[in-house]
Amino acid sequence: MTSSPTSPQSSPEPSAEPSPARSSRPSAGPEARLLHTAAALRDLPRRSGARAVVMTMGALHEGHASLVRAARHRVGPEGQVVVTVFVNPLQFGAGEDLDRYPRTLDEDVELAAAAGADVVFAPSVDEVYPGGRPQVRIAAGPMGTLLEGASRPGHFDGVLTVVAKLLHLTGPDVALFGQKDAQQLALITRMAADLNFPVEIVGAPTVREEDGLALSSRNRYLSLPERRTALSLSAALFAARDRLTAEEALHARAVSTAHPAQDRAAALAALGEDRAAADAHAVAHAAASPLQGPSVARAAARAVLDDAARLEPPLLLDYLALVDPSDFTEVPDDYEGEAVLAVAAKVGTTRLIDNIRLTFVSPRPDTTPARQATAGTGGTAAHHAATGTSAAPGTPPTTPHGTLGATR
Fold first, then answer.
1. Per the confidence metrics, is the pTM higher than 0.70?
2. Which of 75, 82, 196, 269 has the highest count of CB atoms within 10 angstroms of its CB?
3. What is the Cα–Cα distance from 379 to 252, expressed in whole angstroms?
4. Cis peptide before 313 (omega within 30 of 0)
């Protein structure tokens, strides 16, 4: 697991220096009990409230801290929050970074405690896999062969196997995972439902640094030039979201125009109002064309990633995919509903992933501009574009970030 949750951000300009994550080092706070064995975990008294678990591979950062805080809020003062720290060898393939994956247990315990954890469970490999690598494992199925699964064969089998073991060992009522690893979250949710795990799976939003880069333990591997290039991942996602917002706002204006848009464009052009005429022509074109949200989103993201491939160092794209969150298959151009726009790429020797949620809607002729704009992905930003008003300075556009679905 490499879970770390994310908050939607506006499309920031890349900065010359990396922006530190919020509360990257916690202040002194209450201590968390550090346990290393399954026996010690079994002997741990349960509280009167619910138990929540947050699974990590260590090297904790603000993304993990936000998950722990969400878990603490979820179970309340009477509940119990357990954070697991385990670098799972089953989910690393040949040539991946198992040996150099950062191990910072002392700092992890400190951060987890400051965020509200009661217990940190940090077992050894022999403790989790006492007989060596398990012969019986959980298979991720068809969804596990797509995207990350295609790039890293067997990865999700390893993830689901260790998640299942840790769920059995920790016995939680609720488990929280970050939406940055969207495919992982979808598979864990599906596993819990398909195999009747008595646990609720909850997805938490991705946390981003001020420059837009999604928090990841692997970010520490990036040099300053590599980090500048890595910002193209989030920039591509934000470009898709903003382009989709603009298209939906234009259609909202088109369906609410009182006079035929072509007539208005011709009248404005006759008056010499070129800019207004061009705008009216755009509205006219929108009125005559169906929404092509998925193709527009893909094209906007692809343009940013194509530019990033020419940077120094270059961004080496693994995949850009717009997928149905229920099974991670590509959506068609006429798709309506929620989708995940996911990207994976290498910068130098570091592989990074990111994603955002997009919602595709069809305009309705009986919908007012404000309601039509806010019904789609762009929300407030689309409303301002449709009505000609402007948002307050510094107000970022919003991104839908509901969970992939919780199950119990």
1. yes
2. 82
3. 12
4. yes
152, 93 Cβ separation under 8 angstroms? yes
What's phi and psi for 343, nearest 5 deg?
Answer: -140, 145
CA-CA distance, 378 to 391, in Å (whole number)?
13
Pick from 20, 27, 33: nearest CA to 114: 27
Q: Is 64 a catalytic residue?
A: yes
Q: Supply 342's token pair.
A: 């996911």
What tens digit of pLDDT does each residue of 326-362 get? 999 999 999 999 999 999 999 999 999 999 999 998 7
Choosing from 36, 61, 64, 401, the catalytic residue is 64
Read off the pLDDT of each residue in 31-52 and give the average, rounded to a whole number: 95
**Could you tell me the end-to-end alpha-carbon distance of the chain, in angstroms, rounded to an integer?**
20
Do strands 337-347 and 315-323 pair parallel, antiparallel, or not at all (unpaired)?
Answer: antiparallel
**What are the strands of the beta sheet with 33-35, ordered from one edge?**
33-35, 119-121, 80-85, 51-56, 174-178, 200-204
Which tens digit of pLDDT belongs to each residue from 254-283?
Answer: 666 545 555 655 655 665 665 554 454 444
CA dist list (Å): 45 to 31, 79, 118: 17, 11, 12
The pLDDT tens digits for 106-165 are 999 999 999 999 999 999 999 999 999 999 999 999 999 999 999 999 999 999 999 999
Q: Which residues contact 265 (CB under 8 A, 6 or more apart)?
A: 277, 280, 281, 283, 284
